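Lecture notes, unit on protein representations.

Consider one protein chain, 182 amino acids long.
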Amino acid sequence: MPDSGTSDGGERIPSAPLRLFASLVGGMNAAGSCWIVVLMILINVEAIGRSAFNKPIIGVIEMIEISIIGIVFLQLADSLRRGVLTRSDGLFNQLLKKNIVAGYLLAVLTYAIGAVFMGLVIWGSVPYLIDAWKNNYYIGVEGMFTAPVWPIALIIVIGVAVTMVQFIIILADYCRLLNSPD
């Protein structure tokens, strides 16, 4: 994956909007990591309460269910940015060794498809977010524990939108490399 810009080796320095966007992506990843720590504490407190005092915390299972979804979408763009999103690089790396232009073309195609896919996910998720907000969807059992669904739907929309922008940034980097393969 191309470097998004450092001053080392004569490579371009990222613009202020790119640095701000990188901070947003990193902040979303950090929020997801903090959320994991909170969940771990909650799970342990619930397990201790259940086994030691016969007093479980109501709603922990539902909180875990919605939290996992939120964490994934908070950390998705950072995984893509750092190049650790699950993928198979075998063909890509071999192609880069044999024909750098063909490798860059494959990267452009791959990241363009990724951006389009994220756009389709947004297209399907925004109506659900609006519906969940309007109709007050919730998860849980009424009278015991309920949590609204719209905050997680909002996190999904934001996470996918940020991931789409990250796909476009990487796509632009490969297009730039394609125009000047060294």
